[in-house]
Amino acid sequence: MSNPTVSVILPVYNGENYLRFAIESVLGQTLQDFELIVIDDGSSDPTPGVARSYGERVRYVRQNNTGVAGAFNHGLRLAAGRYISWLSHDDVFHPAKLENQVNALSHFSGPAVSYTDLQVIDARGEVVGEHRLPGHEQGQNLRHILTGGAVCSACYSVMYDRRCIEEVGPYSEALRSTQDVDMLARLARRFPLVHVPSLLMQVREHESRGVHSKEWERDVVQFFRRQLNKYPLAELFPELGAEATGRQKAQARVWLAETLEERGFPYYLAAYSQYRGALRESPASAPQLLPKLSRLFWRHFRQRVNRQSLKMKLAALKAREAN
Questions:
Q1: 207-247: per-residue pLDDT in tens?
Q2: pTM
Q3: Gap between the terminal Cα atoms of the chain
Q4: Count of CB atoms within 10 A of residue 23's CB?
Q5: Residue 160, C-beta contacts closer than 8 angstroms, at least 6 positions apart
Q6: Is residue 265 within 8 Å of 218, Cβ to Cβ?
Q7: CB-CB neighbours of 276 under 10 Å
Q8: What's the 3-state SS for the chain?
Q9: Higher pLDDT, 27 or 291
């Protein structure tokens, strides 16, 4: 297919357990004007055989391991579709996903980004939950993304006009765990985010997902801390205006910090720098801000103690089982 409407890019690494479900969910779409590009990021399991078993319906490309961003960027270089859609190898599209998102994007005269609501499935494919995602006003999207809001789950179902990538550039290969949120933030700065309020995506929860790793916990904190300090407050809070006072800016920083705290572990660890930023914006607010910093410190201290205690209990349990 020389010029398909949609290019679905599916990066995979050692994904034999779930890859077939992902591929078949694409092949079964109501909109059939697509190409499916599977980028194998150096798998050492039977992934190649699974992908090749579909013949010409799947464009299978193998590369040396670079990480998910590098694999997806390889797919972007090969893609010929007007719209680009991401699919992780362990997730599943509902049959009408591509059709509904293309319809949503076609109403815009310029480039735009769409996302859908999603279901959570377990390792067996059984539905165990659902997430109805919010739709924020254009000027508010960035601050909700960069504080780990529910809209971040748009990463799972995202589809965008290929012209978006031509403007913002490819996924960051330097980011191993947060490349998708980084891209969502970059897209949100320049293009409308269109919410398609339907459960059109299934995200699989299983033990080997990256979000259960120590690397993910570390990368998330570093990413949100770095990005919130990178973007000017005027972009995160356009309603502040050019005449915003130090106290108003401090209040904006406090909103960022308190929102991160609400997200739980590990997001709240990125709140420290926002409280410190609020102090710099308005030193007179110290009596209100210092107790918040103290509360955050003690929360983290208790978290570390509890996690360490749990580790010791698990180690003792394993030792008893071994004996």
A1: 766 666 778 888 999 999 999 999 999 999 999 988 899 99
A2: 0.89
A3: 61
A4: 25
A5: 83, 84, 105, 111, 112, 113, 114, 187, 191
A6: no
A7: 15
A8: CCCCCEEEEEEECCCCCCHHHHHHHHHCCCCCCEEEEEEECCCCCCHHHHHHCCHHHCEEEECCCCCHHHHHHHHHHHCCCCEEEECCCCCEECCCHHHHHHHHHCCCCCCCEEEEEEEEECCCCCEEEEECCCCCCHHHHHHHHCCCCHHHHHHHCCEEEHHHHHHHCCCCCCCCCCHHHHHHHHHHHHCCEEEEEEEEEEEECCCCCHHHCHHHHHHHHHHHHHHHHHCCHHHHCHHHCCCCCHHHHHHHHHHHHHHHHHHCCCHHHHHHHHHHHHHHHCHHHHHHHHHHHHHHHHHHHHHHHHHHHHHHHHHHHHHHHHC
A9: 27
Q: Of 170, 231, 159, 165, give the one whose Cα is nearest residue 201.
A: 159
Cα distances from 237 to residues 141, 184, 195, 232, 240, in angstroms, run 10, 18, 21, 9, 6
